[in-house]
Amino acid sequence: MSRMAIHRLLLTLPILASAARCPPCGDDGQMACPPTGRAAGESCGGPCDRDGLCAPGLTCAPVDTLKTRVLEFFAPDARSGVCTTREPLAPACVGCPSPAPPDDEGIIDAARWAVATVNAGRNNAHALELVRIASASKQVVAGIKYMLTIEVGESSCANDGRQHEVGACPLLADTQTLLLDVEVVDAPWRTPRYMLLSKALRNAHR
């Protein structure tokens, strides 16, 4: 940073000291009001927004330079930036559910187990067959919690408690598919490995 730049930066320190309590602006104020309607690519922010306010639909994105770091050190709310159409990135949510690919091997295994478990609790003569995994998300807990929506239908296989391979049991000709919403926790070190937290069968609207 040149001597001139350092000199200019030092001149801003008195402004920074009062940045948290910006005086009124305009005819009755102690300072000129900041320019408004700054276009994309133009400077914005700064102490008391003296660099300007972005036009509607634009965001004042911080610019990472030595000068802005010094300004931010003295007054965190006084950082300068550039008007942009990009929205600021939200911080990652650690431990929150996230979408997962339905063809993931762990999801398929959990879905097959869930369908077999639901079959074990039904008195129907025919077993439900997994048609497809309509949606899936997962969350890291004490293991992995899968939140699945599974399309199922009554098949030609007997409901005898066996867990069939996907596609091994053809659907009955007149069957109406259903959607099975389940939450399953997979903890490989535990016996039994899977735990069914919730289940609900509903009509499929296709």
TrEMBL record:
Coiled coil: none annotated. GO terms for cellular component: cytoplasm; extracellular space; vesicle. It comes from the Eukaryota. InterPro entries: Cystatin_dom, Cystatin_sf, Prot_inh_cystat_CS. GO terms for molecular function: cysteine-type endopeptidase inhibitor activity. Residues 1-19 form the signal peptide. The keyword Signal applies. Pfam families: Cystatin (PF00031). Residues 92-200 form the Cystatin domain. The keyword Transferase does not apply. PROSITE patterns: CYSTATIN (PS00287). Keywords: Protease inhibitor, Signal, Thiol protease inhibitor. Belongs to the cystatin family. This is Cystatin domain-containing protein. It comes from Diacronema lutheri (Unicellular marine alga).
